[in-house]
Queue: 4 jobs
Job 1
Amino acid sequence: MESPPPAISLDDLVLRRFDGEADLPELFQVIEESLEHLRPWMPWVAEHSRATTADFLARHAERWADGADFSYAVVLDGAIVGVCSLFRREETPDGGREIGYWLHPAATGRGVATRAVRALVAAAFRLPGVDHVEVVHDPANRASGAVPARLGFTEHLRRPAERLAPAETGEEQVWRLTRRQAERTARGDG
């Protein structure tokens, strides 16, 4: 199973594979400081604990090895400020991958998520068989939707979804970027 690189350096921003237990204290602290910011949109926040963070990190190597989930620590100026993942869901069509992301509130509004997602899109299209990448979010989460819009994704569809977090509307907005669209954008063809 081919995988993206374990680290992607973007000047002051680095996406890197998690280092298991070594990252536990810092990741747990970042989540703790981000709870109110994440709670409206991220259902897993309701179950947040040191144990669930440790479990996420423990499963990381296995999920990376089987190609199910390539989760990266988003590191800005040497500190973890969030997570950005390239993964495959059961409902993701063949040839597709999804990108998910969240940031500490102090790292938002600075282009960090956009740069991280752009890097993971490029990594995704270097994997064999990937012909499109999707970003899925609740349409009320305008900050999450701004990222794919800036990167040339197009709104692919809206679908009903179970409301799992307090601010969710019961709908998901799915943005898609195909390999062909990404190549045209890279060439400047729009």
Job 2
Amino acid sequence: MDDIARRRKIIERGNNVSEIDELKKKLAMACRMLFVAELVDYSGHISVRIPGADRFLIHGHPVSRAEVTPDDIVTVDRDGKRVEGKWNPPSELPMHIRTYRARDDVQSVAHLHNRMVVVLSMADRPLIPASNPGGLFGPGPIPVYQDPALIHTNEQGDAVARTLGSADAAILRGHGSIVAGNSIEWTFAACIDLEESATRLYYASLLGPIRYYTDDELQRVSKGRRRMPVIQKIWDHYIAKARLAGFMEGL
């Protein structure tokens, strides 16, 4: 290898490290913001695919979701084995890994313990778009994985991935949800919209019959809601909200 090729390799390696460092920081921010939004508690997690590699980043199992740092992010391979990092990955890692393996289009996955989504699943009420946040997910209802047990095996992870199918989110009955997207920002915004959709649907149901969106309304709302400027606006708002609450120190 000549000097020019060697220098190019060094530059490429440095760029890749910088990209991974940026993903780790963004993942730590997303985790803290999900905590601020009350979508994760002492459990729940968000992950991201490393571009150009069959590896993934996720925060460590024992770390408080309120104070995750880039140093708490671990790297796992396609079999869920830790290859870098000081912590063990979350115990429900299989739902992330098996979703990535089933969906090449997915770049980021979140598992939430969102209150109102779970409440609807407990009452066996379908989550169907009836407000603009719900419009992000297109025609409803959101698919439901019926087994409430924690997702600790590849077989369970595959079952969750099958329930998710090509959708952006699936409900885990009595447990939480899984959300998948093409970036950390997109997945985070979808997490916000999923819970807001469930909350509005619940409160509206107390007042009477629900007026669901027509196909035309849903198509127009969904198209606007999925635009990157809207996704970025949600992301930026929660950065500001978390910062004001004191949850962005050190990032």
Job 3
Amino acid sequence: MEIRKCRHDDIPSVMKIESLSFKYHYPSSIFYNYLDRNFYVAEEDGKVVGYAIGDARRHLIVSIAVHPDYRRRGIGTKLMESVLKNMHGYAILQVRVSNNEAIKFYKKLGFIEKELLQSYYIDGEDAILMFKNLD
């Protein structure tokens, strides 16, 4: 498995992973807008199996997902490590309160729950704002 910068031709695979991972997913324009920034993919046997995007200016983890068939293999951890090493100070992210697996994953990476964001998502579900000190 290789972690590398995302390329233009990876976006269709990223979009597929996004649609398999989230009920409400980002449009492709978001991914194209981050192409030349802190955007990594995990590739295994020539296939993109995960991605992560960090916005260093906003200290924000924009999105991370691993294809369902490749989860629980450490791919998400490696993707997050790649994104976080290009960020400084701190990092934040939002996660659905119902996404217990993701919350556990982020805590394992050293994120702490900071604040409840009421009705954050389009369907009215609350989010947890999580924080990690990087320096």
Job 4
Amino acid sequence: MTRSHLIAVSATASVWDGAERVRLWSNYVRSLEGAGLVPLIVPPLRIHEVADDILAACGGLLLTGGEDVAPQLYGAEPHAAVTTTHPMRDATELALFAAATARRLPVFAICRGIQLVNVAMGGTLLQDIPSQHPSSISHDQPGLRALRRHAVSLAAGSRMAVALKTTELDVNTYHHQAIDRIATGLSVTATAPDGIIEGAESVDPKWWMVAVQWHPEDLIDDGTPWAGGLFAAFGRVVRHEG
């Protein structure tokens, strides 16, 4: 096993069945394995100085979905709809992202991950789409996680458009927050029909940093031509295959 195959994967921790446990949706693991990568799961940590040591052993970073990013991190008062935050996870992921940025390691960020990246780089968030950006599209729809709910348009020539070989696709959606002000250093490369930002990438052509609001880890087996495309692209760049 080489360093370039190991991916640091952020996880959460919560009380389940009477004990606090580290938790990660297993489809992230399956998606990474399908791309020829091996996950190194990183739970919320009290000691954030180890983030650089963790990334020194890895070829990339995957930031996963989960709780809301604390509004205080982008200078906002919490909206009434913000009910689940995890300060220790915020701090751990910010430290991991800072270490990955310094090393220019490939970063793939999903759902909460795109929001964390935007905040880390100086942007802000819509704390509650239904009340702050009313739309005919429901971005937090219950039901099957792999059910594609709305369209997304990708910027031609963007890393994600190249990886998925399309500029239009339908995605699954279950989030009540999204990027508001895009951070300096990021470019919006995917949007929903109602204007909600669905994807962003680093403007640095030498740094593969791709972030999406939908959940590609739940779509790898749905049979569409682009199923697994983002994870496959992540795997190639981590292994320096182009």
